[in-house]
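--- STAGE predict ---
source: upstream dedup step, 1 unique chain passed
mode: sequence only
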Amino acid sequence: MPLKITVIGTGYLGATHAAAMAELGFEVLGLDVVPEKIEMLQRGEVPMYEPGLEELLRRHVAGIEGSTGRLRFTTSYEEAGAFGEVHFVCVNTPQKHGEYACDMSYVDSAFDALAPHLTRPTLVVGKSTVPVGSAARLAKRLAAAAPAGEAAELAWNPEFLREGFAVQDTLHPDRIVAGVTSERAEELLREVYATPLAEGSPFVVTDFPTAELVKTAANAFLATKISYINAMAEICEAADGDVVKLAEALGHDERIGKKFLRAGIGFGGGCLPKDLRAFMARAGELGVDQALTFLREIDSINMRRRGHMVELTREAVGGSFLGKRVAVLGATFKPDSDDVRDSPALNVAGQIHLQGGQVTVYDPKGMENARRVFPTLGYADSPLAAVRGADVVLHLTEWSEFRELDPAELGDAVSERRILDGRNALDPGLWRKAGWTYRALGRPQA
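--- STAGE serialize ---
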């Protein structure tokens, strides 16, 4: 009989993981403490935009015509404890308000609520991104609170989802990391991931601290690579170099690689910025803060890009935003997502608005979330409507829709044909040919 799996927390990570586990053939029970979220999932709807997730969900949610019925949802920890043989904890770990450190309250609450209902041997698997040392503490907490005692084991199995590719990354992971303390825990995780393992996904068995560090170390490395090329963009602007050609040349070196070498306005979202800061905070708590001092500059370079885009925009419109219309293409922190958390695009739009600019934003999927964060910005229902009458257009999220825009058609709608490419993703020749003044970060102006 297939294992029975529960997924605690049905946000971005949990909803994806629950649907993927059902796709792999398991009976799955998803749990959340927010009834409205559970009701939405029971209808086969997801509370966020993620390509392919809603279709995957509807293939398995019980009660939907034609579904397998392998996926159900509940708000009851008692039901989850009685149902599951393997419990995945997928709750949020945000940055603490006013601090760099990670807020572990949601994880602690989930463990405290689940443990009293674990009356038989079971495996609890942490997937949330946590500070190193958390798993060892939670394992003791779990064994002390569960009626099954030490038979309620813990494993740590960090997630490596990319927004926009979450379904693919869950069903076909590039690696599976299992932090375990027993052969039984390893065997259960191998059973859970039998299908991707058969397809060739590497299975890396580690201790708890290493498993916890893999995710934060990976995100810190990616952030470093992004900020490195953005630092090179600053040098290129000062020296009249071309950061796109520089990145191309660097990328041919197999030791460096081409990915994450596109200069722009930097990274954002709900993971990289807060994971970077939490990593620094935890290193300080461990007394090795000097090992990660360089990450402060990585964070600083990233935030500086936003201010630089604002200044380039001010320069483009003559030195003052007052009375100027600014069109912003993109609100989400990356394409193929509706996530505007710590979005560089929305941050730039907001800064310009607060400094007197009349800002109109268009994004293919992030409009509703953007309105909640910045209700005072203007919003349009198409790129053409967004740029109408604009003195300058900013390209700030690299949606494929924006790369396919017709510069001539947009040129007929704007007040001035000026565009600043904050993602180095548009074709400069195409826009200049249509009469636009095109400028991108780290590239020559002509």
